Amino acid sequence: MLALLVLLVLAAAASIAVGARGISPGHVWSALFSPTGSDDDVVVRSLRVPRTVLGVAVGVALGVAGAVIQGHTRNPLADPGLLGVSAGAAFAVCLAVYAFGVTSVTGSMWFALAGALVASVVVFGLGTLGGGTPVTLALAGAAVTAFLGALTNGLVLSDAQTLDAYRFWAVGSLVGRADGALAQALPFLLAGLLLAAVNAPALNTLQLGEDVARGLGQRIGLARATGIAAVTLLTGAAVAVTGPIAFVGLVVPHVARAITGPDHRWLLPYAGLLGAILLVVADVVGRVIASPAELPVGLVLAFVGAPFFIVLVRRRKLVTL
């Protein structure tokens, strides 16, 4: 844990120090602790620090959400998008632009949160009707994701303004997303982390199988509802601010599980720290490899996550949570 905290501090320091505008380490230090109001101070304090804080918050949220959803579905290839959370948020953002002309990040955030919540409730309801097993939840999530994806494509293709706004939001980036949006999303992120922590003991019991868990006195429906609520709040708030960022929720829980084992009381905090490190480092890499321009963090993570996904599906051991 201490090593991960050190890595996170180093990643955050790199995120604050590296950017399109070259600023020496000494000036970065003075901008942080003895600002004089220079242009460098403004860049560091008004742009890079909020961007880094946003990356840490979203990384923690996506990492923990991935660990929770993999625990509930017992599917090592699951990530928060499996339950339609991202698809629900994306459709709501498109609808907000199309029907109400909302284009700001802070304005679309509330629509994204509402869309994520509605999609999760629908998936959980359909999954419960089918028996409430991990398989029915995953199938309901896939069906709702496909349905919402079709609706989103229909809106995007029918209106040029919606296409432009959605294209900016859907790329998955930390650029220009920090002003005010994180403050609005923070209560939802904290509530999601609290629910995930409460859900950790139940996840350990559910790993033994639903029959055994029920025999041990575990209330399966309540545990599932708590987990879904945690994933919805964490992913919905994160996606609302930055747009959909894939692979953090898929990759990070496996790395955390290799360190901590299956105990979710340890797995969840480790997944959060690893998610924050991965997202911040990917954001820094995106600035370096395309300098003086930069690649959105969503694209960088796609390059990292796709090979990991291929390795994952080839390792039969991991397909048995």
Which labels suit this protein?
ABC transporter involved in vitamin B12 uptake, BtuC; mainly alpha; 0% strand; 321 residues
In short:
By secondary structure, the protein is mainly alpha-helical.
Written description of the protein model:
One of its GO terms (molecular function) is transmembrane transporter activity. It comes from Petropleomorpha daqingensis. The chain crosses the membrane at residues 52-69, 81-101, 107-129, 136-157, 228-255, 267-289, 295-313. One of its GO terms (cellular component) is plasma membrane. This is Iron complex transport system permease protein. The protein is mainly α. The chain has a single domain (50-314), classed as ABC transporter involved in vitamin B12 uptake, BtuC, CATH 1.10.3470. The protein is 78% helix and 0% strand. The protein has 13 helices and no strands. The chain has helices at 2-17, 25-33, 39-73, 85-100, 105-129, 134-158, 160-170, 181-206, 210-215, 220-242, 248-260, 264-289, 297-314. Helix 4 (85-100) runs parallel beside helix 6 and helix 8 packs antiparallel against helix 10 (220-242). The longest helix has 35 residues, at 39-73. The chain is globular, with a radius of gyration of 20 Å.
